[in-house]
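User: MFS transporter. Structure?
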Amino acid sequence: MSLKKIIFPISSMFFAIAFLAIGYGMILTFIGVYLKEMGISSSIIGLINGSFFLGAVLSSIFSQKIISTVGHIRSFAAFTSLMVITFLIHSLFFDVTLWIVLRIISGFSFYALLIIIESWLNEKSNEEDRSKILAIYTIIFYLSTAIGQLFLNIDEDFKQSIFTIGSVLVLVSVIFISLTKIKEPILKPFERYSFPKIYSVVPLATVGSFISGYFVGGFFAMLPVYILLKSDSVETVSFFMIIGLIGGLISQWPIGLLSDKYGRRKLISITAFITAITSILFILFSQTNEYLNILGFLLGLTIFAMYPLSVARANDVVDENKDVIEISRTLLFTYGIGSFVAPLLIGFGISYFNPNFLFISYTILGLFLSFYALTKDKIPHEELSVFVNMPVASGAELPEMDPRQDESFDN
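Assistant: Predicted structure:
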């Protein structure tokens, strides 16, 4: 089927994703920068930003029942409204407890919206074009999230208007969803493996998912704060984040091809090791802005590839008798836990241990994962699945879109 015939029927979904991701990207990065400019401690910023990912984890558990009860379009309108309400209240005044609650609600709502969109995309896709739709979804999400970083450069006198702009962008997505003619899919109940069980089945994938969640959660929630402390320039933060995200997008295809050829174990080890080396270079050269964007690109190349590599590893080792979709959902949940832990630990570490704690923790975890991966068994080449690109953020319906679940998908 031609690309045009694939995209046109679900173009409203892609436009909705684009506007959501722009709003998501700009607000997620901006809050840390905004609070640091207000003089708020890194530990409090970590607590507030970590609350967003706590909302994401809760959404993966509870939002599906809400969506199934009231329907996709009504749920989309409701969760979008909740996101807009939280953004606008942010702009009114600051209170730590209130902002924690707002970030939990915002994270819950955003990831519920992803579940709705992903289930629609899955409903419209078939075995023939599923991989193409997921690739387009991934590209749109990365590019839109990167575009959102440009809004950080708004003039100082209009900084608080970013919350209003974010609200407008999220609301625009409702227009596209409201006009869609795609029928509402039926969401299947989500079931999860326990952590001990999932670790016993796919240990490297489980550890890799958690650490990759830590890396990505730290990237969005606390790295902008770190860059602002070092450079004292919001413009530097903005372009650093854009370059890191572009690096993440570019890395998906070559790392995927290399992992299909040489195996996930080696690629997980290599990307984790490069993350550790890059983190050491950040500590050594963080005062020199000319190297900042190069290091940001290198960091994006590796940290955004680790979760797809972990999921691919799970698909390599899981046999046909296991529920691959539920294992993938559990890995996504593990990734979310890592994203939640990162801002809390990094914020506390920066405030009370060392200003470079973010990259100290990245170095330790990167080295650990690099050597841990090499202790695991090598999978014979003929038993490897195929690497699949994934967006920078995803809901609990993404495993349903994974083309590796299709019997006809070519290994």
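The chain has a mean pLDDT of 87. The first helix runs from residue 3 to 7.
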